[in-house]
Write a structure and sequence with these properties.
globular; about 25% helix; 6 helices; alpha+beta; homotetramer; Chorismate synthase, AroC fold
Chain lengths: ~350, ~350, ~350, ~350
């Protein structure tokens, strides 16, 4: 039973609401002896932190993480690692209207119907603020993977499409991704994206995005068929991120345009290594990593919080209108990038431990 | 830890290999007092059964299910329900070549690397034959949902694209789906699909397909945020089906072409009911069912078993060529339809029990 | 996979070390709409709090609990409930000797061998200080049971033996239990227990205790056979408490002195109720509650921290001697009483939710 | 959620009723490459098999196990291992009376109240017949432990008390245990036990028993605190066995007669090994194996099925009398011995895999 926990041998549990006192997580099943650099966790959080550029929400949160347990003498002890971030810039007044109305496209209506008593302030538990703790937990799993794989396994991710502006595959540049506020791997598209976002921000609207994740040097054998397949677990992980509406691996939905002859990846043995001619499969065969790069993409819908007036209903089921003022991301997909990286690292670390346990 | 089990409060575990003595499953956590009609389970299995038309594999399996436990006086007892299907048409000789070579696009290479000793005959554990037991388990969960929802909740699914031939949304006809060998909801496309499949079958190739699932009358409130969201659990379920490479909900990947103003579903209260103007969200908000139809699509890649010769490698890591003879589906996506229905029913039944447990 | 979590549909996860900054827990799967009275949780914690009488440890901890999430407008929201207690009186210097030596009877040696890097201060993670958070989580589950059962289900517990001084069954007085520092149900034994404890405290030694738990008005049907039996889950829960070395239900080990004729509980129907003649079974048949009082006992060993010198070994595996100074409980079993109550409430609440989910 | 499954990384699920067609289990998470000798599994089952001497039930079951999946070329493949035993000697007529009456001391009443529709024949799902599949699953885990520990880890178990006749600790002889129908480690007590059992059998009554389990050469470090402690998991396992009413580790309940000075185990380093002076702790400190022998005892109550007439109630809640004829064990504790061994092997194998997964 997971509810608010994710993972198996390695597991994290998050807690906290957008406008409560604090948010936090507990990472359990973390091996002892792993160097834990709190500053590194903070750098990962800083990548997701709001209020950093005019392309993201103007809510200002320091997102300063405290590690409260499970670390001794700079290393993990095998005990649960508890982390906490105190909320600082809640400004609850901005959200007063949502006390009585359901924001279209948000979870207000379903939370109300399921729980009746729920914390509506800033979206409460359903707010993407929860994803900060995924980044913290993901950073821990990254430190674990670094240690186990001797720095080999590397998860990279970038935005590849905003609105209808998509990068060409050939223009992907790993080194550029963290050097621009869009996590774009392609310098040439920046101008278009800036214009798109500023235009939408100005009119109080928002944009969707497609994000790609690539994992290099993942060893062969990660993933437990039939119901803990690597792609199955990654899908569960990514689809749990706010606003994500789809995921595809390798050639994905476009595979419907291929046939059996050209849609699978032929194999050769070269220089003492298995070499796949192509990567339609996205690095996963039968739910198990094949040693190729693991590649997948996911779509983050445009934020539903926009300035234009929309039809909705009150908690007393009267028809009404709503404009969501607040401070919102014009393209929330951008800030999803570090979250997707975190979840990917976590899934791989968890499945790696499971795989390891079965080796004689 | 799931491995070969799926579900939480309601759980099934499958076992068995394609060319072993039998395949089976155990369904646990099933409430007592539900009428169990074995014939109904059989009719669901028959929909997936191989060898029924020239558009699917020619392997002949009766797929006759036996219920071995958990049912007494025609009703469930709350004890685990064990079901078994004996394999009858294994013809192992057809697969002799795969003993020493890895079939491209299949799990042979990854299973060999992960397990060393694995049953390669007919793909063994990684064969889609395993999905027969999902259909059996799914049929049980369907009987449970029927009872709980008084026949209201209904999962429907159809193939909406084969190769590059896609149906128009407006042509969807529920009643036609089970009246044609393609599970097509659109009579007008049949001719094109027949031609496509027969052409590919003739040249020993295969085709991909896109499948859509629709759930009607799912009550509001199903799904447990943050890590047991309804879409997250459905994605895990569907992505665990053989050859599936992507999934999307509601408007899915196409949402990148919408903005925040037109990409969310406005709400009204009409005739004492909540009414959504559109269904971009696919019936799920914040991971919880909204009462709208739940809608998602998934891509099934073209079978990798084709007659054209491909490059591959032996278990001794020598380069070689392979042609996969055997008896294969020219469009395996067709037979995935009842499997997707089964998994969807199971996920909803499981999450419904969880939801119910928390109601005071 | 549980590690530091306990429960199924209702689950808590604890974190924190004896001499770290704080200890805490996250309770997940808690239904929405339950009134949460933080003061009540505090009163439960106060029962376990150290430093309250000369019969327990002199460590002074306020054990002030903060609820950080999951509660809104005084009621639970269905979101995880995070609670934290900051440590205030750590006095690490008292424990400096245990940095390099293994205390006999404690977990030092096994933690060192398992984790190498572990927090030895005050026993770190293995300290009974962790049980404070069980009491907090248990108090929440008690509030839930009160609501669901309309105040009917009631867990009572008392010390029934300290050293070789045991109460007579006939002298059990529910009302007296919370009116004395020993949680004794029998006023007449107090004098003997006081003398025993003060004598042992004076010579720096300690005493074991036997504790009995009684649950009244538990409805019939709680417990899920075969591997979530009520007695099985309670045993797992109680045996996880520090220093507990055994548990027995109903007549327990003494049943070996009965035969099949007199060792089972005959049944009658009287005044529209099932009436059992005796309660050898402890209120559980086939792992399911029978409606009788659930009765079990557990043994808490004498604290191993004593002033007399003992043989032990250093972390460099040299033979040495150790005296454990610190501030310790002369009879740690006394403070286990509220912990056992908490775990019992939690197990019953969890299994009650599971049972409820399966009712049609 | 376990219900009818036991274990974590290594898990088994049992199914089947006493008088149904068959009973079976699925063992999941079993590593690949372990030699699986079906004959060995059969020898373990034969130890528990009914009808072997006049000291056990006269029901005749061949208990012939079939392995249906997960084994290829004589070795495990990492896929789930399904095992089945067909029931042969059901004789349902013997149990006709229990269709309408609740047998005192049995689960009839609680199953009826929980499930309404349940298989009452021979106790159905609540029958100890289910434990045959635990023995089969336990045998697999034993094969796994043999391989991993190079035949070092060894679980031994014996009956140490029947009725009021108890063996002396000093008379324990490992080699004698499997050479007598009582699993007695002490030849000198056989005469008394025979008399006791034959006397009770003659008058249609039954006897309780205490069983001791010893695990030698378990490595240090097995067990995951706080809620997967080795003793906690073993208690859960053993308490799930039919008719078990208590468990204690090491000195157990008798520790209440010790004080902190003499009740803990002092340590020395001798001949390059840690040596404990005593074993009050039963080989477990802080929930983790210490390398000492793991020692625990459990009580199996006298079978409630006896020939003397008892008061009970019908399903219509009328008072009535019942005599349980059938074929029953005069001392069911004897046949519990191989079941306790199986569960112990399984717990240790499971926790060993978990421990292994965290080693860097």
């Amino acid at each position: 039973m997971s509810h608010n926990s994710f993972g198996n041998l390695l597991k994290f549990t998050t807690w906290g609401e957008s406008h409560g006192d604090a948010i936090g997580c507990v990472v359990d099943g973390f091996p002892a002896g792993i160097p834990i650099d709190t500053k590194y966790i903070q750098t990962r959080l800083d990548l997701r932190k709001p209020g950093q550029s005019k392309f993201t929400t103007q809510r200002k949160e320091k997102d300063e993480v405290n590690v409260l347990s499970g670390v001794f003498n700079g290393k993990s002890t095998g005990a649960p690692i508890s982390m906490i971030i105190y909320n600082s810039d809640q400004r609850s007044k901005d959200y007063s209207e949502i006390k009585n109305k359901f924001r279209p496209g948000h979870a207000d209506y379903t939370y109300y119907m399921k729980y009746k008593n729920y914390d509506y302030r800033g979206g409460g538990r359903s707010s993407a603020r929860e994803t900060a703790m995924r980044v913290a937990a993901g950073a821990l799993s990254e430190l674990l993977l670094k240690k186990i794989s001797k720095n080999k396994i590397k998860v990279t991710s970038a935005v590849i499409q905003i609105g209808n502006e998509k990068i060409e595959n050939s223009t992907w540049n790993n080194n550029f991704i963290n050097k621009n506020p869009f996590f774009s791997p392609d310098k040439s598209i920046l101008k278009k994206w800036k214009e798109l976002i500023l235009t939408h921000r100005k009119k109080g609207s928002s944009l969707g995005a497609v994000i790609e994740v690539r994992v290099s040097n993942c060893p062969v054998g990660i993933g437990e068929p039939i119901y803990q397949k690597l792609d199955s677990e990654l899908s569960k992980a990514i689809m749990s991120i706010n606003a994500v509406k789809g995921i595809e691996f390798g050639t994905g939905f476009d595979l419907v345009n291929y046939d059996g002859t050209n849609g699978s990846d032929q194999i050769n043995f070269e220089n003492k290594k298995i070499k796949f001619h192509t990567n339609h499969a996205g690095g996963i065969l039968g739910g198990i990593s094949s040693g190729q790069d693991i590649i997948f993409r996911y779509i983050v819908k445009p934020t539903s919080s926009v300035l234009s007036e929309k039809n909705t209903v009150t908690k007393n089921f009267k028809n009404t209108k709503i404009k969501t003022k607040g401070r919102h991301d014009p393209c929330v997909g951008i800030r999803a990038v570090p979250v997707g990286i975190a979840m990917t690292n976590f899934v791989i670390a968890d499945l790696l431990l499971i795989h390891k346990s079965k080796l004689l």
